[in-house]
Amino acid sequence: MDSFFGIGAPELIFILILAGIVLGPHRIRDIARWLGKTTAQLQAISRGFTAQLTKELDAIDESGDLKETLQEVKDLRRQVTELRHEITRGVSEPMKEARELLKEGNESLNQTILPPALQAAQEEKVAPAANGERPRPPLKLPKPVKVADDPE
Question: Are residues 55 and 31 in the same domain?
Answer without folding.
Answer: yes
